[in-house]
Design a protein that fits this description.
Blueprint (H helix, E strand, L loop, with lengths): L2 H13 L4 H18 L8 H11 L4 H4 L2 H12 L15 H38 L7
Helix pairs in contact: 1-2, 2-5, 2-6, 5-6
Length: 138
């Protein structure tokens, strides 16, 4: 994983108990960097970048359904949005910041963990096929 993404994610986890707002803002930044560096989106605003990755159809539906939550919760952390009903600034709740981290973990699994597991399995089977004098996987 790219070092900057790892650092932002770790920091978002570390500050969660002290500041859900800080954790959410870091999660938002982590998502944007992840989409740019790994997801292959063209840089722009995060909403547009999320739309690009959604339009690609590459994400599993469970991740696609939740990815925009990271942006919205992060926006509550970064901007003083006021509730239309109460007039109070909308704050980030701890469970929302935790949800952001869960979504990021799902993305890490999709982009890094599962491909690495699949490669290891293919490599092992190809070695076995080679040793048996058979052609490698297609």
């Amino acid at each position: 994983m790219p070092q900057g993404i790892v650092e932002d994610y770790k920091e978002a986890c570390l500050v969660l108990s002290d500041s859900a707002k800080a954790s959410a803002a870091l999660s938002r930044r982590c998502l944007q960097n992840l989409l740019r560096q790994v997801g292959g989106v063209k840089p722009g605003d995060l909403s547009g970048e999320i739309q690009q990755v959604l339009d690609s159809g590459k994400l599993p539906q469970d991740i696609a359904d939740n990815i925009d939550a990271v942006r919205n919760i992060g926006n509550f952390a970064a901007h003083a949005n006021k509730s239309k009903s109460t007039g109070e600034v909308v704050d980030v709740e701890p469970h929302e910041a935790e949800w952001n981290l869960d979504v990021l973990e799902s993305l890490f699994d999709f982009y890094f963990v599962q491909p690495a597991k699949a490669k290891a399995r293919r490599d092992a089977l190809n070695k076995k096929l080679h040793d048996a004098g058979k052609p490698p996987l297609k």
